[in-house]
Amino acid sequence: MGSVVLLLAIVIASMLCVRIGAVALELTGMDKEKARFQALSAFTNTGFTTSEAEGIMHDPTRRRIVTVLIVLGHAGTVSVIATFATSLIQREPLHIAMNLSVTLLALYGIYRLARWRGLTVRMQEYFRRTLTVRYGLSHLTMEEKLNVGEGFGVVRLAIRKGLPLIDHPLAELGLKLQKVQILSITRGDQTITIPGGSDRLLAGDIVVCYGNVQAAAEIFGPSAAG
Protein backbone atom coordinates (compact mmCIF):
# COMPACT_ATOMS: atom_id res chain seq x y z
CA MET A 1 0.00 0.00 0.00
CA GLY A 2 2.93 2.30 0.66
CA SER A 3 3.98 2.17 -2.98
CA VAL A 4 0.43 3.05 -4.05
CA VAL A 5 0.42 6.12 -1.80
CA LEU A 6 3.80 7.16 -3.18
CA LEU A 7 2.58 6.69 -6.76
CA LEU A 8 -0.48 8.83 -6.11
CA ALA A 9 1.66 11.51 -4.47
CA ILE A 10 3.88 11.61 -7.58
CA VAL A 11 0.82 11.92 -9.84
CA ILE A 12 -0.59 14.80 -7.77
CA ALA A 13 2.80 16.53 -7.72
CA SER A 14 3.08 16.12 -11.49
CA MET A 15 -0.33 17.67 -12.05
CA LEU A 16 0.58 20.61 -9.82
CA CYS A 17 3.84 21.11 -11.72
CA VAL A 18 1.98 21.29 -15.03
CA ARG A 19 -0.58 23.72 -13.58
CA ILE A 20 2.08 25.96 -12.10
CA GLY A 21 4.10 25.84 -15.32
CA ALA A 22 1.04 26.79 -17.38
CA VAL A 23 0.29 29.75 -15.10
CA ALA A 24 3.93 30.84 -15.23
CA LEU A 25 3.93 30.77 -19.04
CA GLU A 26 0.64 32.62 -19.09
CA LEU A 27 2.16 35.34 -16.89
CA THR A 28 4.82 35.91 -19.56
CA GLY A 29 2.05 36.91 -21.97
CA MET A 30 1.32 33.56 -23.61
CA ASP A 31 -2.28 32.69 -24.44
CA LYS A 32 -3.91 30.52 -21.75
CA GLU A 33 -4.64 27.52 -23.95
CA LYS A 34 -1.22 27.65 -25.59
CA ALA A 35 0.42 27.95 -22.17
CA ARG A 36 -1.35 24.80 -20.96
CA PHE A 37 -0.38 22.88 -24.09
CA GLN A 38 3.28 23.93 -23.91
CA ALA A 39 3.52 23.19 -20.18
CA LEU A 40 2.08 19.70 -20.70
CA SER A 41 4.32 19.10 -23.73
CA ALA A 42 7.44 20.13 -21.79
CA PHE A 43 6.58 18.12 -18.66
CA THR A 44 5.75 14.97 -20.61
CA ASN A 45 8.79 15.52 -22.87
CA THR A 46 6.55 15.13 -25.90
CA GLY A 47 8.61 17.58 -27.92
CA PHE A 48 5.92 19.09 -30.14
CA THR A 49 7.41 21.56 -32.63
CA THR A 50 5.02 24.47 -33.05
CA SER A 51 5.35 28.20 -33.65
CA GLU A 52 4.65 28.74 -29.94
CA ALA A 53 7.45 26.35 -29.00
CA GLU A 54 9.82 28.23 -31.28
CA GLY A 55 8.71 31.49 -29.67
CA ILE A 56 9.67 30.11 -26.25
CA MET A 57 13.29 29.79 -27.37
CA HIS A 58 13.49 33.54 -27.96
CA ASP A 59 12.19 34.44 -24.47
CA PRO A 60 14.65 33.75 -21.62
CA THR A 61 11.93 33.64 -18.96
CA ARG A 62 9.81 31.15 -20.87
CA ARG A 63 12.94 29.13 -21.66
CA ARG A 64 13.76 28.80 -17.95
CA ILE A 65 10.20 27.78 -17.11
CA VAL A 66 10.16 25.09 -19.81
CA THR A 67 13.62 23.84 -18.77
CA VAL A 68 12.40 23.32 -15.20
CA LEU A 69 9.30 21.50 -16.47
CA ILE A 70 11.41 19.20 -18.65
CA VAL A 71 13.72 18.30 -15.75
CA LEU A 72 10.80 17.70 -13.38
CA GLY A 73 9.02 15.68 -16.05
CA HIS A 74 12.00 13.36 -16.45
CA ALA A 75 12.22 12.90 -12.68
CA GLY A 76 8.48 12.24 -12.42
CA THR A 77 8.51 9.65 -15.20
CA VAL A 78 11.41 7.75 -13.65
CA SER A 79 9.77 7.86 -10.22
CA VAL A 80 6.44 6.56 -11.52
CA ILE A 81 8.08 3.67 -13.38
CA ALA A 82 10.24 2.74 -10.40
CA THR A 83 7.35 2.94 -7.93
CA PHE A 84 5.01 0.93 -10.13
CA ALA A 85 7.66 -1.73 -10.75
CA THR A 86 8.38 -1.99 -7.01
CA SER A 87 4.70 -2.51 -6.27
CA LEU A 88 4.67 -5.56 -8.58
CA ILE A 89 7.83 -7.29 -7.37
CA GLN A 90 7.31 -10.40 -5.30
CA ARG A 91 3.62 -9.78 -4.70
CA GLU A 92 0.70 -12.20 -4.79
CA PRO A 93 -1.71 -11.79 -7.73
CA LEU A 94 -4.55 -10.89 -5.34
CA HIS A 95 -2.41 -8.22 -3.67
CA ILE A 96 -1.42 -6.80 -7.04
CA ALA A 97 -5.07 -6.70 -8.15
CA MET A 98 -6.07 -4.88 -4.95
CA ASN A 99 -3.28 -2.33 -5.41
CA LEU A 100 -4.32 -1.72 -9.00
CA SER A 101 -7.95 -1.30 -7.99
CA VAL A 102 -7.10 1.18 -5.25
CA THR A 103 -4.78 3.05 -7.60
CA LEU A 104 -7.39 3.32 -10.35
CA LEU A 105 -10.07 4.50 -7.93
CA ALA A 106 -7.73 7.07 -6.43
CA LEU A 107 -6.68 8.29 -9.89
CA TYR A 108 -10.33 8.70 -10.83
CA GLY A 109 -10.88 10.73 -7.66
CA ILE A 110 -7.88 12.93 -8.53
CA TYR A 111 -9.26 13.38 -12.05
CA ARG A 112 -12.63 14.49 -10.68
CA LEU A 113 -10.93 16.99 -8.39
CA ALA A 114 -8.90 18.32 -11.29
CA ARG A 115 -12.14 18.83 -13.22
CA TRP A 116 -13.71 20.78 -10.33
CA ARG A 117 -13.68 24.27 -11.78
CA GLY A 118 -14.04 26.10 -8.47
CA LEU A 119 -10.99 24.36 -7.02
CA THR A 120 -8.83 24.79 -10.14
CA VAL A 121 -9.67 28.49 -10.42
CA ARG A 122 -8.69 29.11 -6.80
CA MET A 123 -5.49 27.12 -7.26
CA GLN A 124 -4.56 29.07 -10.38
CA GLU A 125 -5.19 32.38 -8.66
CA TYR A 126 -2.99 31.29 -5.75
CA PHE A 127 -0.20 30.21 -8.14
CA ARG A 128 -0.56 33.48 -10.05
CA ARG A 129 -0.23 35.61 -6.91
CA THR A 130 2.71 33.58 -5.62
CA LEU A 131 4.62 33.68 -8.90
CA THR A 132 3.96 37.40 -9.29
CA VAL A 133 5.08 38.34 -5.76
CA ARG A 134 7.96 35.89 -5.30
CA TYR A 135 9.44 35.70 -8.79
CA GLY A 136 8.31 38.96 -10.35
CA LEU A 137 6.34 37.31 -13.15
CA SER A 138 3.53 39.53 -14.36
CA HIS A 139 1.20 39.33 -17.31
CA LEU A 140 1.17 42.30 -19.66
CA THR A 141 -1.90 42.73 -21.79
CA MET A 142 -1.48 43.72 -25.42
CA GLU A 143 -2.58 47.24 -24.52
CA GLU A 144 0.09 47.45 -21.82
CA LYS A 145 2.77 46.13 -24.17
CA LEU A 146 1.89 48.71 -26.81
CA ASN A 147 1.06 51.46 -24.32
CA VAL A 148 -2.31 51.87 -26.00
CA GLY A 149 -4.52 54.73 -24.87
CA GLU A 150 -8.21 55.21 -25.51
CA GLY A 151 -8.89 55.12 -29.24
CA PHE A 152 -5.48 53.67 -30.06
CA GLY A 153 -4.59 50.18 -31.24
CA VAL A 154 -3.30 47.97 -34.03
CA VAL A 155 -5.44 47.75 -37.19
CA ARG A 156 -5.19 45.97 -40.54
CA LEU A 157 -6.43 48.00 -43.50
CA ALA A 158 -6.79 47.63 -47.27
CA ILE A 159 -5.68 50.38 -49.69
CA ARG A 160 -8.49 51.13 -52.12
CA LYS A 161 -8.14 52.45 -55.64
CA GLY A 162 -8.44 56.20 -55.98
CA LEU A 163 -7.02 57.17 -52.59
CA PRO A 164 -4.91 60.35 -52.89
CA LEU A 165 -2.04 58.81 -50.92
CA ILE A 166 -1.37 56.11 -53.53
CA ASP A 167 2.11 56.16 -55.11
CA HIS A 168 3.39 58.89 -52.80
CA PRO A 169 6.42 58.42 -50.49
CA LEU A 170 5.31 57.71 -46.94
CA ALA A 171 7.46 60.61 -45.75
CA GLU A 172 5.13 63.01 -47.61
CA LEU A 173 1.90 61.69 -46.06
CA GLY A 174 2.31 63.28 -42.61
CA LEU A 175 1.19 60.16 -40.82
CA LYS A 176 3.06 60.95 -37.59
CA LEU A 177 1.16 64.22 -37.28
CA GLN A 178 -2.04 62.17 -37.27
CA LYS A 179 -0.54 59.72 -34.75
CA VAL A 180 -0.43 56.78 -37.17
CA GLN A 181 2.57 54.49 -37.76
CA ILE A 182 2.73 51.87 -40.51
CA LEU A 183 4.20 48.62 -39.18
CA SER A 184 4.10 46.59 -42.40
CA ILE A 185 2.86 46.61 -45.99
CA THR A 186 1.76 43.38 -47.68
CA ARG A 187 1.75 43.41 -51.48
CA GLY A 188 0.84 40.05 -52.97
CA ASP A 189 3.37 37.54 -51.65
CA GLN A 190 5.76 40.28 -50.52
CA THR A 191 5.76 41.91 -47.10
CA ILE A 192 7.62 45.11 -46.34
CA THR A 193 8.34 45.18 -42.62
CA ILE A 194 8.98 48.55 -40.97
CA PRO A 195 8.67 50.52 -44.23
CA GLY A 196 10.83 53.60 -44.68
CA GLY A 197 9.95 57.10 -45.76
CA SER A 198 10.73 56.35 -49.41
CA ASP A 199 8.35 53.38 -49.63
CA ARG A 200 5.06 53.93 -51.44
CA LEU A 201 1.55 52.51 -51.12
CA LEU A 202 -0.24 50.92 -54.07
CA ALA A 203 -3.86 49.98 -54.62
CA GLY A 204 -4.55 46.54 -53.18
CA ASP A 205 -1.86 46.77 -50.51
CA ILE A 206 -2.68 45.57 -47.01
CA VAL A 207 -1.18 47.75 -44.27
CA VAL A 208 -0.85 47.02 -40.55
CA CYS A 209 -0.84 50.23 -38.55
CA TYR A 210 -0.50 51.27 -34.93
CA GLY A 211 -1.97 54.51 -33.69
CA ASN A 212 -5.23 56.41 -33.67
CA VAL A 213 -7.72 53.88 -35.04
CA GLN A 214 -10.21 56.42 -36.34
CA ALA A 215 -7.50 58.47 -38.06
CA ALA A 216 -6.05 55.33 -39.68
CA ALA A 217 -9.47 54.32 -41.00
CA GLU A 218 -10.00 57.79 -42.46
CA ILE A 219 -6.54 57.81 -44.09
CA PHE A 220 -6.41 54.31 -45.54
CA GLY A 221 -10.02 53.22 -45.85
CA PRO A 222 -12.09 50.38 -44.34
CA SER A 223 -10.61 47.46 -42.42
CA ALA A 224 -9.30 44.58 -44.51
CA ALA A 225 -11.26 41.36 -44.38
CA GLY A 226 -9.55 38.36 -42.69
Describe the protein's architecture and organization.
This protein is of the alpha+beta class and 226 residues long. It folds into 2 domains: 2-135; 145-220, Regulator of K+ conductance, C-terminal domain (Alpha-Beta Plaits, 2-Layer Sandwich), CATH 3.30.70. The chain has helices at 2-27, 32-43, 51-57, 60-88, 93-114, 117-135, 142-146, 213-220, and strands at 152-158, 180-187, 190-193, 206-212. The relative contact order is 0.11. The mean pLDDT is 77.
What letter string, H or E per element, gives the SSE order? HHHHHHHEEEEH
Mean pLDDT over the residues: 77
Helical residue percent? 55-70%
Q: How many domains make up the coordinates?
A: 2
Number of DSSP helices? 8
Q: Nearest-angstrom radius of gyration?
A: 26 Å
The computed structural class is alpha+beta
- Sketch the major β-sheet: 4 strands, antiparallel
From the structure above, extract its key features:
226 residues; 4 strands; elongated; 4-stranded antiparallel β-sheet; alpha+beta; Alpha-Beta Plaits
Write the layout of secondary structure elements.
Blueprint: H1 2-27, H2 32-43, H3 51-57, H4 60-88, H5 93-114, H6 117-135, H7 142-146, E1 152-158, E2 180-187, E3 190-193, E4 206-212, H8 213-220
Antiparallel strand pairs: 1-4, 2-3, 2-4
